[in-house]
Amino acid sequence: MAHPNTTLRVLITGAAGRIGQTLRDGLADRYALLRLADIAPQDEAGRGEEVVVCDVADMAAVERAVAGIDVIVHLAAVPDEDAWDKLLPANISGTYNVFEAARRAGVRRVIFASSNHAVGFHRRARPLDEHDVPRPDSRYGVTKVFGEAVGRLYADKHAMQVASLRIGSFQERPRDRRQLMTWISPGDMVRLVGCAIEAPDYHYITLYGVSANTRATWWTHAADLIGYRPEDDAEAWADDLMSEMPAEHPVAVQFHGGPTCVVEFDGEPGRID
Fold this sequence. Notes:
globular; two-stranded parallel sheet; oxidoreductase activity
């Protein structure tokens, strides 16, 4: 990351979640203000922090949360596959509300927590970069494609600076064979988001949120633009995972989205190019 910017006022939505709490700790004391918004309980505010209650499905609450902010890190969402009526309020309405409230308030930069599941039905035999078209593997993935599209609209139409982070497998350590490719460590997550917050001006960029994994199959040229240099590698756990974990599901192993592709799957893998 660059040097701390003690003039920036940064809002994190979904700050009570696993990634949110990691960023709260890792970005402490870097900015003039770290405003932490969630509907779930949070620890009391520390130095340089504000803790606010905000349901991103409530536009008025979002407008209050973004007031006076320079950069938004938008994490708030249902974080996994679910029924559409569960995903709709936070992942669709909430994401729109954040971008629109940011526009109204003159926020210059929004960092959107997208997901690898926005492109999960691309075949794993071919590495991906930021130019690959969306190919969601789930309803959840569809909501992340929506968020990327909204971000692109607000960048093009309203001159907002937007970074969509296609986050891989955020864990303390990789848990299965697929995560040898897709893992992002807590430390690298802090580095990635910090770079996206602090980088010089950009327009719209897509970045894969992964560590420096030996087996990585996702590549992002924009990482150089913002100075993201991951430091961790899932390969440290490769021997244990390859020997102890069962082989992947025969559908999951074919696609970048892995086990999420299998949920409710009744298609024909051979017809998926």
